[in-house]
Backbone:
């Protein structure tokens, strides 16, 4: 990524954080929908920052996702398009009627099946996550941090050293909020991705073999 664009994203991060800290005190937000409700505000700040730095000169220079199924949430149509996807996580978690501390929001980071198309379209170094960390419970409503980094910096590893994912659908999962990223660069992500796809496939095959074996025993 161009050095100047990195500086612009740093400016955007600071502006988004300041803006969200302000609006959270003047608007009525619910912890259940906060992550979705703030997306329009994030987009507004990005448009303002990119416009101020000459990267947006007309509405044709960017594209906003029409719905939640579209990737990315914000596309900057520079010579090399930049994909910005919005994520958020609450440091508080409601469980059995009580609030407790949360270290990982378990966001959907895209399925193993969907990532090859995303990488083909944008390239591995041109997909960034805008990750908002907030703290909402019965007593507190505050925005703690905004992080803008390459997508792979937010993905965690499981106990077997593979990319962290959900077994049933292959959705990748994030690292803990303030844990150092276990994936240091895109090359490492690519290597882990290939290994994880094989790892998951073998687990699924093994699981189906056990189901078949049990069914045959009952016949």
Residues:
């Amino acid at each position: 990524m161009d050095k100047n664009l990195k500086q612009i994203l740093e400016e955007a991060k600071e502006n988004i954080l300041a803006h969200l800290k302000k609006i959270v005190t003047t608007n009525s937000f619910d912890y259940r929908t906060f992550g979705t409700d703030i997306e329009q505000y994030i987009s507004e700040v990005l448009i303002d920052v990119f416009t101020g730095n000459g990267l947006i000169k007309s509405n044709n220079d960017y594209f906003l996702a029409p719905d939640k199924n579209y990737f990315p949430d914000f596309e900057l149509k520079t010579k090399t398009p930049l994909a910005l996807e919005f994520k958020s996580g609450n440091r508080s978690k409601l469980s059995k009627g009580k609030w407790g501390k949360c270290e990982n929001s378990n966001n959907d980071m895209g399925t193993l099946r969907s990532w090859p198309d995303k990488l083909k379209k944008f390239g591995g170094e041109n997909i960034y996550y805008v990750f908002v960390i907030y703290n909402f419970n019965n007593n507190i409503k505050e925005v703690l941090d905004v992080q803008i980094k390459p997508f792979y910096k937010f993905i965690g590893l499981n106990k077997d050293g593979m990319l962290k994912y959900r077994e049933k659908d292959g959705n990748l999962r994030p690292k803990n909020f303030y844990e150092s990223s276990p994936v240091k660069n895109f090359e490492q992500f690519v290597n882990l991705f290939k290994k994880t796809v094989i790892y998951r496939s073998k687990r699924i095959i093994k699981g189906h073999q056990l189901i078949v074996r049990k069914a045959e025993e009952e016949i």
Summary: Strands lie at 62-64, 74-76, 82-90, 92-95, 98-101, 127-136, 141-150. The chain has one domain: 3-218.
